[in-house]
Amino acid sequence: MRIAVCVKWVPDPDYPALLGADGATLASDGLVFMADPIDMVAAEAAVRVKEAAGGTVAVYSAGPADAEKGLRAALALGGDEGARITLDGSGFSGGVRAARLLGAAIAKTSPDLVLCGVQSSDSGSGIVPAALAGMLRLPLVSGVVRMEVRGGELELERRMEGGRHEVLRARPPLVISVQPSLCQPRYPALLARRKADRVAIQTLSAGDLGLPEVSSGLQTLGLRPPRPRTARLVAPAPEMDARERYRFILAGGPAQNRTPSRLSGPVPAMVDELLRFLQTQGVATVNGAAV
Amino acid sequence: MADGKLVLAVVDCDAGGALTNAGLEALGAAAALRDGLGWQLAAALVAPSGSSVPVALGERGAARVVHLDGPCVTDGAALADAVWPAVIATEPAATVFSASAAGREAAARLAARTGWDTVAGCNVLKPANGEVRIGRACLGGKAQLELCWDTVAPLVLAVDAGAFAPPPARTGRQAEVISQAAGTTPDWAAVTHIGETVPPPEALDVTEADVLVAGGAGVGGPEGFGLLTELARRLGGTLAASRVAVDRGWAPHQRQVGQTGKSVSPKVYLAFGISGAPQHIAGIRNAGKVVAINQDPRAPIFGVADLAVVADLHELVPALIDRLAAARQGAVAEKAVSA
Ligand SMILES: Cc1cc2nc3c(=O)[nH]c(=O)nc-3n(C[C@H](O)[C@H](O)[C@H](O)COP(=O)(O)OP(=O)(O)OC[C@H]3O[C@@H](n4cnc5c(N)ncnc54)[C@H](O)[C@@H]3O)c2cc1C
Question: Which among A162, A92, A164, A159 has a CA at the least distance from the CA of A128?
């Protein structure tokens, strides 16, 4: 099987001081960039498919020159080829552009399988997998948490809303986006890293791929502190008259008991309060009914 | 219709052909652009002929409704292809998709087809002076990204769930309804649905579970962790642990949450006997609600908790389990009576 993996070059998502003191700009000094951890999961999954079914793994990144380091980290897991498509600018704006560049480069090799993370850890818009599938005119199975090779096919399990998992049988070619829990990337041996360092990484530009420069109507203004979590307001029922609606909205929707934020005292009373709090969060139900 | 431009909302229906709340929220976001820019509001839906949804969309303020006649679609690839004729027919300046999985996939596929810029997960739309300020979350929710759209180059949007209210319905308002055949998709026979599973909560990875019951050094030993596992099972959640608990061998290392463990995003995180070291907190930044149980009222974990329970966990945990077990028995008995 020919397998392509997309690897984004991102600021270390676990770096403690990712954001500056204002909470609105990326820290400038000490910030470490790396291959997106979720894309490393995709790369590990690709290598496991190769080990089970044979084939090659090619890794792709659209990004600055440093992104080659991310490609080498992914290659060290057991990849064979790498290509970087030059893309400048912040990694926050160019989801569609990145997908078009990656798609054009990947299309040239007609892979059986294209793997990527469900969403990048920095921009996180989650556009790339579906846009890639659109570019390549392939089906997409998103959010995969289990992947097994069964003959020439794959058995996939993906996570859906509400904790349900869907099991699918898929015949390549297709695009798969992976969840972090799919697998744990191996720790590459020194030898594997040395080998990855010797792989020649191709550099391609939009021009090489025959993609025209498109003017963008979007301008990135910058980062802001996160929005406070908005309280969900339930829409008033249509049969309410204007005054009832008004009262309903002012009351913040259906009656809400504000739980005291601090509990202490006798244990049985605390247990009651705690369970009541969990129920308001939709937890602690028995057979679907509230405890 | 100040400059004759149009915003198109792609409104999802469910498998039974009924309007979804996600679809109405997409219409709400599109209505915000109509109101702020003076554009025309159009809506596209895929439904079999005879559907009552086009009328409902007119009542909710769509001036034009493109009814794409075809079987209901809940798959992103099929939705993108099905609505393509509506995009051709209306030449929208902006196309707004819903937050559903299908909506988001269709938005990205439309973007790939057209090369139009796209913002997914949009939670703010502020039109003013012929421009639109657009916001969405990034960095795993740690920051908000702000963008400005010039309204000249066409744009594709997929909205964030719950960010826009459905526009109100007013009976009597009518849209001009255009019916045309839905676009068709190549048959993806390549992917077949085999089945669905609901994995037992305790088998879930800590990154997947909606409820996490986490234990720290204060739990005191493997027996305590046995009780937490039991509690997790009764709450439909799974077990997590601090590093100290993992280092002492009370919980397996895949259960560790924090800087050197996993970052988790459950709806509810219950922390039992965890002090709240920064390295632990680093892993629960994206948790919905945090409930902390600690006997030390000054424990740092309370600083990030939505509910602070000052108690000895050795008393509280068994009492919680008893209470849940009793409630369950009650429910079973009730069922037997009503049957
Ligand atoms: C580089 C580095 C990386 C690290 N990475 C991680 C990581 O990924 N994850 C992580 O968790 N830690 C990590 N740590 C360790 C971290 O600093 C803390 O040491 C650890 O989180 C503390 O674990 P704890 O809260 O379980 O234990 P403690 O800090 O010992 O807290 C125990 C708490 O239990 C309470 N308690 C005791 N008895 C009871 C009772 N009967 N009832 C109720 N409450 C009780 C106490 O009041 C106390 O608050 C890291 C440290 C370093 C230096």
Answer: A92
Contact between residue B155 and residue B119 where contact means Cβ atoms under 8 Å apart: yes
Residues 6+ apart with CB under 8 A from A228: none
Which residue of A112, A137, A182, A218 is the best one to mutate when testing the B interface, meaning the one whose CB has the most B CBs within 10 A? A218
In the stretch 106-135 of chain A, residues with CB closer than 8 A to chain B read 121-135
**β-strand partners of B137:** B144
What 8-state DSSP symbol labels residue A19? B
pTM of this structure:
0.72
Tokens for B118? 């796209």
d(CA A255, CA A258): 9
CATH, domain range A2-204:
3.40.50.620
| Tens-digit pLDDT profile for residues B114-141 | 999 999 999 999 998 889 999 998 887 7
The first and second tokens of residue A52, run together, are: 């089970």
In terms of residues, how long is chain A? Answer: 291
Contact B256/B262 with Cβ under 8 angstroms?
yes
CA A222 – CA A224 distance, rounded (Å) = 7
CB atoms within 10 A of CB B325: 13
Predicted confidence band at B319 (pLDDT cuts at 50, 70, 90)?
very high
- A14–B contact, CB cutoff 8 A: yes
Mean pLDDT of A95-110: 93
- Written as six digits, the tokens of B292 are 């902390």
Tokens of B277: 């070291």
Pick the residue whose CA is nearest to atom 38 on ligand 1: B218
Contact (Cβ atoms closer than 8 angstroms) between residue B97 and residue B109: no
The listed range with the strongest mean pLDDT (A255-264, B211-220, B322-331) is: B211-220
The CA–CA distances, whole Å, from A230 to A233, A234, A283, B22 equal: 9, 12, 20, 17
Q: Give yes or no for a cis peptide into B199 (omega within 30° of 0).
A: no
CA–CA dist A151, A93 (Å, integer): 40
C-alpha B339/C-alpha B327 separation (Å) is: 18
Q: State the complex-level ipTM.
A: 0.79
First to last CA, chain A: 52
Residue reference for tokens 């839905």:
B182
**B216 closest CA partner among B156, B296, B146, B289:** B296
Numbered ranges of CATH 3.40.50.620 in chain A: 2-204
